[in-house]
Specification:
1 helix; mainly alpha
């Protein structure tokens, strides 16, 4: 039987880290904050002046 070296599950070379990806929760949270900011700065002044409704 051939003698082989015991290898563990760990890699010999460090794995390169990839760029962090934007997950769904972060995307939805950012979209919600952007929509709220749009409403506060653009729509609310029109309502308070009586122009929109």
């Amino acid at each position: 039987m051939k003698q082989t070296a015991q290898r563990g599950w760990q890699f010999d070379q460090p794995v390169r880290k990839t760029r962090p990806t934007i997950d769904t929760t972060t995307a939805l949270g950012s979209l919600t904050v952007a929509l709220l900011a749009y409403i506060v700065y653009h729509v609310y002044p029109l309502i308070s002046k009586g122009i929109l409704f």
